[in-house]
Every structure is written in structure tokens, then in C-alpha cells.
């Protein structure tokens, strides 16, 4: 295991792919960053599945270590994260074993992380819902100020969860979700986009914005090419204008841009043998002046080592794609 030291670069460096990238933070220990969201002030909240922790990382901090938020005591690791009301985030937790690649039964939770004031870095963490029928709460997205949608890959389903009452039910088990890999969820207007990693596809359907229930059948927006046969389309970001999706290619150590109208896709950062984006897991746009920056979390190759045997700490990488 190659243990990298914390590295903080200050300049964007160009590589073969078209957009410049910059390492924001790399953990000193093997750490699987699984997902992320950004706060109003532009800071990044990144979940880890290797421990029940949430990292608060400031992209402009040159020397400060990230703040590690704890208190997710019902779980061994964290997955999806979404802002539900201003500066309050819902975070999914599971006892997911990286060894067996399976979650412990009865271990799916949703937590509410609430910052008491805008400048606070000390949020309260509480259990919002125990959702044992969800086998694995992976990517999550906010539907309204009390409801989130949850991707559940083992069940090939999307659930709606009311975090005030804890009530939850399946809103879709569309055939396109059946690949046991429904992973990321993002909403633009009434279009719910999803990735299915096992099927290497990005799909979408229209939903009823009150209930989250689909009003049409899912359709394929794009499929990742079969060659090379890498694990593709983990979680993703959607541009604010809803025209581009940015799925990460976990096994390709790269990030792709998909035009959701045409399905055309291009690699925008990283490449197969490149450790600078080592097994990316998700992406999110910056805020507070960083709207043109796409932040990417990585597992550091813990699950899929780069070049077969290279791993690094979990990374947060910035890609300057421009605001859109
Ligand atoms: C999940 O892990 C937590 C933290 O180690 C533990 O307290 C809890 O009992 C586990 N739950 C299940 C269902 O295994
Ligand atoms: C599931 O977990 C809850 C909370 O820890 C516990 O009360 C319940 O007995 C568990 N159910 C099963 C079937 O293990
Ligand atoms: C949540 O949304 C509802 C419906 O839009 C609104 O009436 C309510 O005030 C909101 N509550 C909070 C806490 O924002
Ligand atoms: C969805 O697909 C089913 C099965 O192919 C079909 O019967 C149904 O009409 C479709 N619904 C819509 C809204 O297109
Ligand atoms: C990876 O494997 C190659 C070929 O066997 C070897 O030369 C290299 O030192 C290994 N690297 C690490 C980080 O273990």
C-alpha cells in the first residue's frame, strides 16, 4: 500500500484531457471518499465509506487540515449526501463491507447534519430515519424540504423517504434500474437522472414533483462504451442548466462529460493509467464563486487499484469546466 502525504497544489496542471485539474486534498491514510456536496460558502462535505466520517474541506485552504465530523454512530461508513434545507444535509449510512462488497442487513440509516449558523464548522448529527428495507442507500437527492429520493442498487429501486416521519416507500423499480447498479440520482426540473453502474448507463425519467413517482418510463441518455471494459458511470454531477452530466468512470480513473440532449460524451479529465483521479466516485459543482469548478471524490484506487497495484489516499480533485 502506497501511503501518500497530504499534498496541496496551488496551480491547475494540464494533462491530455481538455480541462485543467488541481488536487485539493489527499488523505494521509487509505480512505474511500464515496460522495460529496458543497456548502453555501464553497466548502466541500465529503463522505467516507471506510469510516463513518464526513470531511469538511475548504478548497482555498492551503495549510489547514480538513475538519472531520463524527457522530454517525449506527454505521461503519457513509454514502450519499444531499442538502435538504439551507445548510442542512441528509447523509446516508450503511455497514457496507468492502471485503464482501455487501451491506449488513438492517444497517441502512439517514442522518441529518445541521450547521447551527452560516460560519459554523460544528454541525449537529442526528438519525433522521432507519430504513432497513433499503438494502444499500447509495446516491440520494432532495425532492423537497422533507423528502429525499434514495438509490438502492441491490433492489434495483428508487425509494422516497420522508425524513420528518421516517416513512418510506419504493417510487420506481423501472426495468432500467434492474441492473443492481442504480447509483447516482440528480434532479433537474421534473427530470430525474440516474446512473446504473452495472449497466454502464445514464438514464432519466420525468417524475411527479410532489411524490417522486415517475410519470413516464425511463429512457437511456448515454451508455459508456464497452471498450475498455472498465467499471463506468459511478455517481455524477449535473450542470445547473441541466444540459450536461458529468459521470465519473471509476475503473477508468477519469471523468466524462455527457451532452444529455445528444448523448455525445467526451473524457474531460484523467485517463486509465492516471493516478491523479484514482477510482473516482462522485462529482459536484462548487458554489460561492466556484460555480465553474467540478469537484470529484476518489477512493484512491482502494477498490480498483490503478495499473493493477497502485493506490493513494482518498482524493478531492478540482476540474475547471466553466460555469453552465
Ligand atoms: C453497524 O455498525 C455500528 C458501528 O460499528 C454498530 O454499532 C451496529 O451494531 C452495526 N449494525 C448492524 C446492523 O450490523
Ligand atoms: C434492526 O435494528 C433495530 C435498531 O437497532 C433493532 O431494534 C431491530 O431489532 C433490528 N431488527 C432486526 C430484524 O434485526
Ligand atoms: C417546506 O416546504 C413547504 C412547502 O413548500 C413550506 O410550506 C414550508 O414552510 C417549508 N418548511 C421549511 C422548514 O422550509
Ligand atoms: C411503459 O412501458 C410499458 C411496457 O413497455 C408500456 O406498457 C407503457 O405504456 C409505458 N408507459 C409510458 C408512460 O410510456
Ligand atoms: C506494481 O507492479 C509493477 C510490476 O510488477 C512493479 O514494478 C511496481 O513496483 C509495483 N508498484 C507498486 C506500487 O507496488
TrEMBL record:
Keywords: Signal
Name of the protein in its database record: SMP-30/Gluconolactonase/LRE-like region domain-containing protein
PANTHER family on file: NHL REPEAT-CONTAINING PROTEIN, NHL REPEAT-CONTAINING PROTEIN-RELATED
Residues in the signal sequence: 1-16
Amino acid at each position: 500500500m502506497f501511503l501518500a502525504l497530504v499534498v496541496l497544489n496551488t496551480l491547475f496542471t494540464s494533462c491530455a484531457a481538455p480541462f485543467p485539474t488541481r488536487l485539493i486534498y489527499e488523505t494521509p491514510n487509505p480512505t474511500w471518499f464515496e460522495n460529496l456536496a458543497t456548502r453555501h460558502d464553497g466548502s466541500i462535505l465529503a463522505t467516507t465509506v471506510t469510516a463513518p466520517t464526513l470531511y469538511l474541506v475548504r478548497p482555498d485552504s492551503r495549510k489547514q487540515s480538513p475538519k472531520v465530523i463524527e457522530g454517525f454512530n449506527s454505521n461503519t461508513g457513509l454514502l450519499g449526501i444531499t442538502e435538504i434545507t439551507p445548510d442542512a444535509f441528509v447523509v446516508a449510512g450503511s455497514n457496507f463491507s468492502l471485503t464482501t462488497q455487501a451491506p449488513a442487513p438492517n444497517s441502512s440509516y439517514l442522518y441529518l447534519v445541521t450547521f447551527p449558523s452560516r460560519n459554523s464548522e460544528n454541525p449537529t448529527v442526528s438519525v433522521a430515519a432507519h430504513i432497513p428495507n433499503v438494502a444499500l442507500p447509495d446516491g440520494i437527492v432532495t425532492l423537497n424540504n422533507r423528502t429525499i429520493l434514495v438509490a438502492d442498487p441491490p433492489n434495483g429501486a428508487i425509494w422516497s423517504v420522508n425524513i420528518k416521519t421516517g416513512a418510506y416507500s419504493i417510487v420506481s423499480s423501472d426495468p432500467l434500474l434492474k441492473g443492481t447498479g442504480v447509483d447516482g440520482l440528480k434532479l433537474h426540473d421534473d427530470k430525474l437522472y440516474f446512473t446504473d453502474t452495472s449497466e454502464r448507463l445514464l438514464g432519466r425519467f420525468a417524475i411527479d414533483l410532489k411524490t417522486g413517482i415517475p410519470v413516464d418510463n425511463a429512457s437511456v441518455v448515454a451508455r459508456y462504451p464497452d471498450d475498455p471494459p472498465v467499471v463506468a458511470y459511478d455517481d455524477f454531477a449535473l450542470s445547473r442548466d441541466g444540459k450536461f452530466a458529468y459521470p465519473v468512470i471509476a475503473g477508468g480513473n477519469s471523468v466524462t462529460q455527457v451532452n444529455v440532449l445528444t448523448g455525445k460524451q467526451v473524457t474531460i479529465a484523467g485517463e486509465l493509467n492516471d493516478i491523479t483521479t484514482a477510482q473516482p466516485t462522485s462529482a459536484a459543482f462548487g458554489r460561492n464563486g466556484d460555480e465553474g469548478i467540478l469537484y470529484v471524490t476518489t477512493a484512491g484506487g482502494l477498490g480498483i487499484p490503478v495499473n493493477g497495484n497502485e493506490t493513494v489516499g482518498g482524493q478531492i480533485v478540482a476540474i475547471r469546466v466553466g460555469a453552465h
